[in-house]
Specification:
Immunoglobulin-like; single chain; 167 residues
């Protein structure tokens, strides 16, 4: 969890209630949450490492959890800083799921939570094109021009969203 939340969050104590703080290596650690669709592939997770120890010999590994795959799932700590790990959700998650990150001694050094995603809701979404001043109209045109029919069909297919565009 980003360190700056202590300074930027309106109520850090309320944030801690949501993010389930835990103690890792004698420091407070707020567990990050990830929300993915079932069968969603290719989500990139950037790794940040905080350590004061020698990192040349240690490794970290995402423990195996049914339905979630990390590529790579194990690598040396020396190459971990800002490393991208690809996350795949291979099947619906019935309950919120915690994945532990362990070092080579199998000590938990991090965690990531995944929201349950087995029950998707259908939402009706309306994109409204509003008329305003010239600057607003220019911005709105840019946004709507990026919303191609293919993009909307893909959105509709993957998220069960009903799309209606009114001009």
């Amino acid at each position: 969890m980003r360190k700056d939340y202590k300074e930027t969050c309106l109520s850090y104590e309320e944030l801690k209630k949501v993010y389930q703080p835990t103690a890792l290596t004698n420091q407070e650690y707020l567990i990050p949450w990830i929300s993915m669709f079932p069968n969603q592939m290719g989500v990139k997770l950037r790794i940040e490492v905080e350590t004061k120890e020698d990192i040349n010999t240690d490794t970290i590994e995402f423990k195996s959890v049914d339905g979630i795959k990390f590529t790579p799932n194990k690598f040396s700590l020396s190459e971990a800083q800002n490393k991208e790990v690809i996350v795949e959700c291979n099947k619906p998650l019935i309950v919120d799921t915690i994945v532990e990150i362990i070092n080579q001694e199998e000590v938990v050094v991090g965690k990531v939570c995944f929201y349950a995603n087995h029950n998707l809701n259908t939402l009706k979404v309306k994109f409204l094109r509003l008329k305003g001043n010239e600057k607003d109209n220019t911005y709105n045109e840019k946004v709507f021009n990026q919303m191609t029919l293919e993009w909307m069909n893909e959105l509709k297919k993957n998220s069960r969203i009903n799309i209606l565009i009114k001009h």
